[in-house]
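Something for you to look into today, if you have time. I want to see for myself how the chain folds. Leave the record below and I will have a look.
***
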Amino acid sequence: MARSQIENRNFLAPTGFQFNLKRSPKVAFFCNEANIPDLNLGVAIQPNYLRDIPTPGDKIDFGDLSLRFLVDENLENYMELQNWIRGLGYPDSVQEFRDLTKSGQITQRNYGKSGHDIYSDGTLQILSNNLVPKFNVNFKDLFPVSLTTLTFDATDTDIQYFSANADFKYTSYEIVPVGADPVLPYLPAPTISLTASKTSGLLNNEAVTFTYVTTNATQVTINNGVGVQTAVNGTAVGFTVDFGDETSKTFTASAIGAGGGPVTDTITLSRATAATADFFLMKWTFTDGQDLDIRAAVLSPSVSGIATVGFAMSTHVVGAGITWGGDNLGTGVESVLFTKQDFIDNNAGINTISLDLRAGWYSGDGGDVGFNPVILTVTSFQGGSMVYDSVNKTWTNPTADETFSGFTSTSKVITDRIPDEGGLPSSRDLGERIAIMDLDFVAGTVVYRQE
């Protein structure tokens, strides 16, 4: 008869087994290693004048069944085997053998040999890669012949829990197929998608609503404290996002179902940071000199009309979202406000603005050069509304959700004097450059450069 090729190309896994020992179930429960014993067939030698010819014998020598099991703290499984061996060998008195036959865990009096409870049958069940029983290795008339020692060592720094080895003799064993793998119905794998009511510009401890949609799912879990959801489709309403010291946090929704899993979907929430806020207030602070005139010119994106704010320039650049706060004839502060939403409304898809920040001392009456550095700071505000302070030529935001005070700054000693033209600073002289500031309010970066 022709032999066919192997149809199942999966390999046998060494971890796929279960062992059952009728007489010592506690040993079987903690068993973590077992073997299919070896077989050795005797060989008969047929004499021949040229050379002796080996022929198959008629006796099989079965190797020992070896088990390794974890020892429980009460030594129950260990003592099961030790008492079994002691009863078989009765090292102290014959009464130990009598006790074994009377107190064994197998209660049927006709079990084993000659009515004695000294043997036990056992089964090693071999499992497939899918943990489905494939074969039973049935052992007949098992009895233990050796049990390893337990060595205690007070010098061990790492706890290694005890395991013990036991060897068994037996009459014979056979390997019996359990049957074909069951045909399981097709169950589609689960899917999940996760969205959030807001993903960027969040305040710390702001409430966010997560919405998840699944198919073929029986359970949904969202990490970072959101927890297991009671419905397989729905919302986790009003979860407060605690960013801690982080600027972003990733949430993962996991779904499991009868068809498998877990499958996941993730969403990252980003915290409002200083450079991603709604309003940016730039302040030129000067502590000496008189009548510093500031300039803020839009280098990019390109805008129509006058692209510079400051005295003798423009108060507001249409489409760029920058506004000058007014002229300070003494010492103190002059400022420029950048409103992000105004910029976004007029520059769709553009996330950066580059400003040429300059200053110069008015050379006319009342102007005087200072010797201390002019300090340029940027304070940003998330949420709220800006309120103009006409006295101090700047803005405040008392209703801001979050304020990032002076999160970035630069400075320079200004020596340039802006010429007087008819009693006013010249509109043709932009003054001395402090820095070019590149603000990316999506990436959340501020870069100063000199050119």
Remarks:
- The first helix runs from residue 25 to 29.
- DSSP finds four helices and 32 strands in the chain.
- The CA atoms of residues 220 and 255 lie 5 Å apart.
- The longest strand covers residues 133-147.
